[in-house]
Amino acid sequence: MKQVTPAMEGVAVSARYGARTVLSGLDFVIPKGQMTVLLGPNGSGKTTLLHVLAATHPVAEGRLLRHHQRRPALVPQHSQVSDSFPITVRQTVAMGRWADRGPWRPTTRADKAVVAEALDQLGIADLAGRRLGMLSGGQRQRVLLAQALAQRSDVVLLDEPTAGLDVTSAERIHTHLARLRSRGVTIVQSTHEPEAAATADHRIHLGAPVSVGGQDFGPLSATHPRITGHCGVPTARRMGRPGSGLGCRSDQDRHCFSLWQAQL
Ligand SMILES: Nc1ncnc2c1ncn2[C@@H]1O[C@H](COP(=O)(O)OP(=O)(O)OP(=O)(O)O)[C@@H](O)[C@H]1O
């Protein structure tokens, strides 16, 4: 039976903006070294959850247990970066080193080597001297991913990394994410793309309740396709509290997810 090791575990996690609760009582697991996708309609809280995982947005209630080694690298949506921000591609990628050395320390030779390698890996070395705001969406997204690579974290969080990109640019990003995963990096990405969702190891659904066999689950649900078929334990008792914030897409997934949760 496949063992799943958690990189992070959320226990009844809530998050707010002022008095407004956006995430409420979420229980979830982010498996270590695997690809998790966050799914859900606009406004369901995917970006907010990514920021909670990145520790850039506070947990209002509940607990987030961390089992990873380094500060997560967060890749924002490319549309969130201002065109007028006067920064070059190399400087943007070098910011990824801040997690290690702080923003005010001079860049070391080792930092420069890491930045050069990240630029190279994403195929953007020729853009190093260009202004970030002058790049296309696809180029900019690769720069932001290079910044995350330069951080050398064991957890990479991405907010719709291929939104608005053409097929070739999106494939490049997917290829690099797959490479990171093969190196054991834990990846969490929000997406609206069915293909990214289908190929992920693990899916977390936010938003509208999911109906399974006439029973409603929501607002959070999770599946783990890799362990589908390894279970057979009647688990509805354990996890099927309607409205509890936990549920899965299919009966089989629901059983498996429960068993998997129970293994942790
Ligand atoms: N800074 C903020 N202040 C107040 N409310 C916010 C803020 N950021 C987001 N929200 C609200 O929180 C809710 C969740 O937003 P979030 O961006 O996390 O959703 P999302 O699932 O990522 O959406 P999308 O798919 O459109 O990117 C929305 O209703 C949004 O209006």
UniProtKB/TrEMBL annotation:
Family to which this protein belongs: Belongs to the ABC transporter superfamily.
Protein's UniProt name: ABC transporter related protein
UniProt cross-references to PROSITE patterns, sorted A to Z: ABC_TRANSPORTER_1, ABC_TRANSPORTER_2
GO molecular function: ATP binding; ATP hydrolysis activity
Positions of transmembrane segments: none
Keywords: ATP-binding, Nucleotide-binding, Transport
Domain ABC transporter per the UniProt entry, residue ranges: 8-233
Pfam families: ABC_tran
Family annotation (SMART domains): AAA
